[in-house]
């Protein structure tokens, strides 16, 4: 299997840095081909801005969508952006590893998404009609590929439980799982989350790597989160709301995954 690891932590000697090295070693020992995008080590430019687009004339208005599409179609994207897109197309599975900062991914990783997910590449593809609202949410250029988050959090697991003060971890990660990953077609695996990072001693680290190793060994057999596909009958088009007979009376993030998936996470 070809695995891309997108790593977003500024300190190589951190817990995240150690887990990155563990994953690379485990994947290599299992015979997988691995590429790494270590965003801080790469000094990744996080801002999507006019200077990404060589076709823009000085003083011209910058439109992130249309200029992104124009550069993608013309092959004039910045070299580092095209290189990351090539890695995504190469990979069978993509692992995104990051600490949970202010309830989401670090800005450098969000900036990677903003720039690499160009219009025409990760979104804005496929037929748009009264019966098919683009190739997304289960379709798209990443269809057939898998993705998994490896996330660290300083709080206790109970802080991220159904009644925890931070909100359920599944809800916090929903915009990434459903929006960033499922939208362009990835099969999204349940996340691997490490809690109480400041309390990870040698024994806890050994338990963590044992558990993480088992997840890595089953990347291709783990059942993905059963998000409902957009274009195959669950949603009314073009309203893009669930049919009335699906999860009647329910609302919120959880209704966009089948019940068996909700119970298995």
Automatic annotation (TrEMBL):
GO cellular component: a single term: cytosol
Classification via SUPFAM superfamilies: Flavoproteins
Keyword list, A-Z: Oxidoreductase
MF-aspect GO terms: NAD(P)H dehydrogenase (quinone) activity
Catalytic activity, EC: 1.6.5.2
InterPro entries: Flavodoxin_fold (IPR003680), Flavoprotein-like_sf (IPR029039), NAD(P)H_dehydrogenase_qn (IPR051545)
Domain Flavodoxin-like fold: 1-208
Pfam families, per database record: Flavodoxin_2
Protein family per UniProt: Belongs to the NAD(P)H dehydrogenase (quinone) family.
PANTHER family, per the entry: NAD P H OXIDOREDUCTASE-RELATED, NAD(P)H DEHYDROGENASE [QUINONE] 1 ISOFORM 1
Name assigned to this protein: Glutathione-regulated potassium-efflux system ancillary protein KefF
Gene name per UniProt: kefF1
């Amino acid at each position: 299997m070809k695995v891309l690891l997108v790593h977003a932590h500024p300190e190589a000697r951190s817990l995240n840095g150690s887990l990155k090295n563990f994953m690379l070693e485990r994947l290599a020992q299992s015979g997988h081909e691995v590429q790494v995008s270590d965003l801080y080590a790469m000094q990744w430019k996080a801002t999507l801005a006019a200077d990404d687009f060589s076709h823009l004339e000085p003083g011209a208005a910058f439109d992130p969508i249309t200029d992104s599409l124009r550069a993608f179609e013309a092959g004039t994207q910045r070299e580092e952006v095209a290189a990351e897109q090539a890695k995504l197309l190469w990979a069978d599975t993509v692992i995104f590893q990051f600490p949970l900062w202010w309830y989401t991914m670090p800005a450098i990783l969000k900036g990677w998404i903003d720039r690499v997910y160009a219009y025409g590449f990760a979104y804005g593809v496929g037929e748009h009609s009264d019966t098919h609202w683009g190739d997304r949410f289960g379709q798209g250029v990443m269809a057939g590929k898998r993705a998994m988050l490896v996330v660290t959090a300083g709080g206790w697991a109970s802080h991220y439980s159904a009644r925890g003060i931070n909100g359920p971890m599944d809800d916090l990660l929903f915009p990434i799982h459903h929006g960033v990953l499922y939208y362009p077609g990835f099969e999204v695996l349940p996340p691997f989350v490490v809690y109480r990072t400041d309390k990870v001693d040698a024994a806890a680290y050994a338990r963590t790597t044992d558990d993480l190793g088992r997840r890595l060994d089953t990347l291709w057999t783990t059942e993905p989160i059963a998000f409902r596909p957009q274009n195959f009958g669950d949603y009314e088009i073009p309203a893009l709301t669930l049919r009335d007979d699906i999860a009647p009376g329910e609302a919120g993030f959880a209704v966009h995954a089948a019940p068996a998936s909700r119970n298995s996470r």
